[in-house]
Amino acid sequence: MIIICYDFSNDKVRTQFSTFLKKYGHAVQYSVYAISNSKRVLKNILAEIECTYKKKIKNTDHVLIFQVCEQCQKKIIRFGRASHEVEDIIYFE
Fold first, then answer.
1. Which long-range contacts (C-beta less than 8 Å, at least 24 apart) are formed by 66-71?
2. Which of 12, 45, 47, 76 is most buried (most C-beta within 10 Å)?
3. Which residues are within 8 A (CB) of 2 and not within 5 positions of it... i.e. 6 or more apart?
4. What is the CATH class of 2-84?
């Protein structure tokens, strides 16, 4: 799993960055995204940030990328909606 947190002072850049991340994962909070981890996905995200967003990131802005290993994912304590994201769902018809 990859966790990406960001904070941009520019509303337009913040919206663009959020839209970009929606292609890869889902919002956990307004400026926090959880993304399924793979080397290819991370490489694509880093390339897009480097090419498109790096020049738009000001000294007051933040982008943090955390790679969470499988063992660490098992240690995550979840409540509320987050607790349902890892559960298997069974549908009966």
1. 66/2, 66/3, 66/4, 66/5, 67/1, 67/2, 67/37, 67/42, 68/1, 68/2, 68/3, 68/37
2. 45
3. 25, 34, 35, 36, 37, 41, 42, 45, 65, 66, 67, 68
4. alpha beta
pLDDT digits (tens, 9 = 90+) for 48-76: 999 999 999 999 999 999 999 888 888 88
Q: Domains of the chain: which residue ranges? A: 2-84
Name the token pair of 39. 């080397």
In which residue are the tokens 């290819």 written?
40
The model's pTM is: 0.82
Give the residue among 44, 55, 73 at the shortest CA–CA distance from 10: 55
